[in-house]
Amino acid sequence: MGLRDQLNTAVKEAMKARDQKRLGTLRLIQANIKDKDIAGRTEESREGISDDEILALFGKLIKSREDSIALYEKGGRPELAQAEKDEIAILHEFMPRQLDETETKAAIAAVVAETGAASLKDMGKVMAALKERYTGTMDFGKAGAMVKAQLGGK
After folding, report:
1. How far is it, in rounded angstroms, from Cα 25 to Cα 49?
2. pLDDT tens, residue by residue, 11-31
3. Looking at the structure, do residues 75 and 106 belong to the same domain, yes or no?
4. 63-70 contacts: CB < 8 A, separation 24 or more?
5. Do 68 and 108 have their domain in common?
6. What is the distance in angstroms between the CA of the first residue and the CA of the last residue of the chain?
7. What are the phi and psi torsion angles at 59 (to 5°)?
8. How many other CB atoms sit within 10 Å of the CB of residue 138?
9. Are residues 87 and 107 in the same domain?
10. 3-state class of 76 per DSSP?
């Protein structure tokens, strides 16, 4: 079952359970996907975005919520931070298992070896290969720092 089908099923279940908070989050996710679908339309293709693109979108949604949590906690608004954490938990339900730090380091080492990357100039090539293979399962913010460290940066 594709991610869109999983989302639709989850929306129906939330409606039946009368879980307004979950339903609101799921509808927000669907609206973001629809926006991306519309932005990606061309004269030749009316297809929606792929599951990989949806996973990348989920990563961006999670990142923005993590940023909001930091701001809310800094501003002394724990109830708003908790609401963001709840939304992140719902997003994680639809994402594949995330790679841990050792798995991420191993994946980076494999891609560096495959691409023959030797310096920071090759970082873009390594990151592109990682994004192609590990979209939705790797935190690219942390991975970028690890790639930089492995290629001789700070």
Report:
1. 20
2. 999 999 999 999 999 999 999
3. no
4. 63/141, 65/91
5. no
6. 42
7. -60, -40
8. 20
9. no
10. coil
Give the side-chain half-sphere CA count within 13 A for 126: 28
Domain CATH code at residue 82: 1.10.1510.10
The total number of structural domains that make up the chain:
2
Residue 114 belongs to domain spanning: 101-150
What predicted TM-score, i.e. pTM, was given to this entire model? Answer: 0.70
Residue with tokens 């939330």: 14
Identify which of 98, 93, 66, 85 has the alpha carbon closest to the alpha carbon of residue 11.
93
pLDDT tens per residue across span 59-84: 889 989 999 999 999 999 999 999 99
DSSP character at residue 122: G
What is d(CA 13, CA 23) in angstroms, rounded to the nearest whole number? 9
Q: Which of 101, 125, 102 is nearest to 114 (CA)?
A: 125
The answer to whether residues 47 and 107 belong to one domain is no
Q: Are 57 and 33 in contact (CB under 8 A)?
A: yes
